[in-house]
Design a protein that fits this description.
The protein has 786 residues and is an alpha+beta fold. 19% of the residues lie in helices and 28% in strands. The N terminus is likely disordered.
Length: 786
């Protein structure tokens, strides 16, 4: 395959061949001579949305979508001008509303200026440069061959590439979830194609304060093997199509991204508790027994999971349980009576002999040469819901595990870009390689919400794409090994996923595949499980799963006290977690936050991929080495930090050695934090009071306590309440603001046990026995001075 290279003259045939061959990455040779200009300058004119430029080879359109948002589309002259379907984007009024801009043109450049950005085009070279309104360089296209188009395997489409020149030091992140162990992707190549353990979301963020959204679902690559080039390449498209988003803070970039592609809804409150799962519970009796033991042992837990093979033999795809399940609605009622919710595994891949798939094939709803329905066909989405998840939902299931959403087609686990040689209803598989999980989860959410507004959607799936955060779905990291290597690789993978605009992510605590049979009861594995469990408690969704005969907390006898303690801490933190989840929905916040998000000005954080903030206050440093009893922890500059376990203070901007006995995960809290902790409970919603409010002095601080019914979509109509907490460090005063809003079942007030943290005081996961003050709160503003 060859690219048609635009804007090149006086280059040897060999050099041109290297530059226009897709497999050679269209890499330009670096020489001491100036890069050659295009054969003729582009003609540039202002358009209603920005500018349009063209020459004999290419048409380029630059649209101002917002003061901090620019859309770039380039296509070869003579190419079909079309409006390809982009279902990951919201309508244009949301994704590209426009903004005031000024257009200017001189001999050397045409510029578009907004209140925050300046975009310059060199007509001589066809290269775009993006700067801040203050003149700081953000991003520039490569000066030679900034965009290329070549013949594609798909008729009427092109191999497309956009080439950029990163600066010498910037770090790059995002792009979904990948298992290479890299946090900063500088110097690497990332394939953007769905597979088990690998998730493609083509959104890149830079430490310089910009993002690039590569606007295609095609089989693609991000390639930065060569330090002077950062390339996006796709195997099928009608145009080079990308957005540049400016922050400069990463929260601002992600807020723009979710405004373009969809905001993340609230999950039911129980979904922020513990999910108990294994591969697999094989009978109704086993499910009820495990749930009953959790309640009898007073271990906090909110959901239990029915994994695959609940169906009759040969019936994957049919809503018919095998003989081990005698009365599913009665089972679910028994679980609900014990305040346990239930999630069931439902696959888009089906057995070819199932009645459901036979009917899918008869109606033409399958993806050809697969056993998978086509979710890009609305009629197929309707049929899938009506035939399978809809019937299960009517039984009383609370959540769906939409496994194999790459989709997986062959067995075992062959999912790598599995659609690229298929035909979809929306278009060619090569052009829409990565779209399946978005449409699959979107169809289920749509029908669920049409069925009821009383239960919030909760979906778990193994893959994701642009915009999927709006579908009420959490992604897990796939079927990883039960090994220390795998645990280490989860942390960076999850942090880059968060920087891809998707706020909900989880991992199989303990890993899925056991390298050695029977490892669950081995001391070496128990240590790994404990460290993974400690880390998992500080993921947005807290979930244990794996291919083990037994995976209940008491299975791991030697580390059970440590597991119970961290489980109880997660439940005590539910007021903090649920309030932070509201920030995700209302402010486009991110729960699990790489340090570069909050401390971007501290360059030492740019390559820290094994620590993260959990919400605004808690810094988590998982223990990732076998037999470790301490680990180095970097304390970001610009603030003072408190050891959560001891209350000892430390100054930021340096590395410390943190104690980490097996029962302890290093946690630090930044000064100025207000952290609400609830009572010791066994399930979400069991009790709310008293609330222990820990204040970490040394800076002013704020926190908003959010509460609602815990389920239903009435919160979207304003059925919720907030209480603003403010700490004035100078006067050492905590102000508890007037409660705003209301909802059905709201308690009239709260008992706040306020603790101003110091060394040895207000520390650890247990309840502080002697708070500094107890405030009986009735909903009116009050203040407590210390």
């Amino acid at each position: 395959m060859f690219k048609r290279a635009f804007g090149i003259s006086c280059i040897s045939a060999l050099t041109l061949l290297l530059q226009i061959t897709f497999s050679a990455n269209t890499t330009a040779a670096q020489t001491d001579v100036e890069d050659p200009p295009r054969p003729s300058s582009m003609q540039v004119e202002q358009s209603p949305t920005g500018l349009i430029a063209h020459d004999d080879f290419e048409t380029l359109e630059v649209s101002i979508c917002g003061a901090s948002l620019v859309h770039v589309v380039g296509r070869p002259v003579g190419a079909r001008v079309s409006e390809p379907s982009r279902p990951w984007m919201l309508d244009k009024a949301q994704s590209c509303p426009g903004a005031v801009f000024q257009f200017a043109q001189t001999g050397d450049a045409a510029t578009l200026a907004t209140a925050r950005l300046v975009v310059s085009l060199s007509p001589k070279r066809g290269t775009l440069i993006f700067k801040t309104a203050g003149g700081d360089m953000l991003l520039r296209e490569y000066p030679n061959l900034p965009r290329t188009y070549g013949s594609s395997e798909t008729s009427g489409r092109y191999d497309i590439e956009a080439r950029f020149s990163p600066d010498a030091t910037e770090a790059i992140y995002g792009l979904g979830q990948h298992q290479s162990g890299l946090f900063n992707y500088r110097g690497s190549t990332v394939e953007l194609a769905q597979n088990n353990t690998d998730v493609a979301i083509p959104l890149l963020l830079s430490s310089k304060g910009y993002g690039i959204l590569w606007n295609t679902a095609s089989f693609s690559y991000m390639d930065n093997r060569f330090p002077l080039e950062l390339n996006f390449e796709s195997r099928a498209g009608d145009a080079v199509d990308y957005y540049v988003l400016y922050g400069p803070e990463m929260d601002q970039i992600l807020q723009q991204y979710r405004t373009m592609t969809g905001h993340a809804p609230m999950f039911p409150k129980w979904a922020y508790g513990l999910f108990q799962s294994k591969d697999r519970y094989s009978s109704q009796a086993e499910i009820l027994d495990v749930a009953g033991q959790y309640r009898a042992r007073h271990i906090p837990m909110d959901a239990i999971v029915q994994d695959w093979y609940w169906w009759r033999q040969g019936g994957e795809g049919d809503p018919v349980f095998n003989e081990n399940y005698t009365d599913v609605p009665a089972e679910l009622k028994a679980l609900h009576d014990e305040h346990v919710h239930a999630m069931i595994s439902v696959w888009g891949k089906m057995d070819g002999t199932s009645q459901t798939f036979q009917e899918i094939r008869r109606r033409g709803f399958e993806i050809g040469q697969t056993h998978v329905y086509d979710p890009t066909n609305s009629a197929a989405r309707n049929f899938f819901w009506d035939r399978l998840p809809g019937k299960l939902f009517a039984q009383g299931w609370d959540a769906f595990w939409l496994d194999s959403a790459e989709p997986e087609e062959s067995w075992p686990h062959s999912g790598d870009a599995s659609l690229r040689d298929k035909k979809l209803n929306i278009g060619s598989g090569l052009e829409y390689t990565n779209i399946f999980p978005l449409m699959h989860t979107g169809g289920v959410q749509e029908h669920w919400k049409e069925t009821t507004q009383e239960k919030r959607v909760f979906l778990l799936t193994r893959s994701a794409f642009l915009g999927q955060q709006r579908n009420g779905a959490t992604v897990w990291s796939g079927d990883v090994y039960s090994s220390w290597w795998a645990l280490k690789h989860q942390v960076g993978a999850g942090l880059n996923f968060a920087l891809s605009g998707y706020p909900y992510w989880t991992t199989d605590i303990g890993g899925y595949h056991q390298p050695v049979a029977g490892m669950a009861n081995q001391p070496a594995y128990e240590e790994l499980y404990a460290r993974w469990f400690e880390y998992g408690a500080f993921c947005p969704i807290f979930r244990t799963h794996g291919h083990r005969d037994h995976n209940e907390m008491w299975t791991y006898e030697k580390v059970y006290p440590a597991l119970l303690a961290v489980d109880q801490l997660r439940y005590r933190l539910l007021p903090y977690v649920y309030s932070t989840a509201w920030k995700v929905t209302s402010e486009d916040y991110t729960i699990q936050r790489p340090l570069v998000m909050d401390f971007r000005s501290d360059e030492a954080t740019w390559n820290v991929g094994d620590q993260f903030m959990f919400g605004p206050s808690l810094m988590v440093s998982p223990v990732l080495e076998e037999h470790a009893t301490e680990r180095p922890v970097y304390l970001p500059s610009g603030t003072k930090w408190y050891d959560f376990w001891t209350g000892k203070e430390a100054t930021g901007g340096r590395q410390v050695q943190a104690a980490a006995p097996l029962e302890t995960i290093p946690l630090d809290v930044r000064a100025g934090s207000i952290v609400p902790l609830g009572p010791v409970i066994e399930y979400a919603g069991q009790a709310t009071d008293p609330i222990e409010v820990r204040v970490y002095p040394g800076a002013d601080g704020d926190f908003t306590l959010y509460e609602d019914e815990g389920d239903s979509y009435r919160y979207t109509q304003g059925a919720y309440s907030t209480i603003a907490l403010h700490w004035n460090d100078t006067s050492r005063t905590l102000t508890i603001g007037r409660r705003t809003g209301s909802y059905k079942g709201m308690t009239p007030g709260h008992t706040f046990n306020v603790v101003v943290v110091g060394e040895g005081h207000g520390v650890g996961g247990g309840v502080t026995s002697a708070p500094d003050k107890t405030v009986t709160y009735t909903g009116e503003a009050t203040a407590a001075r210390f």
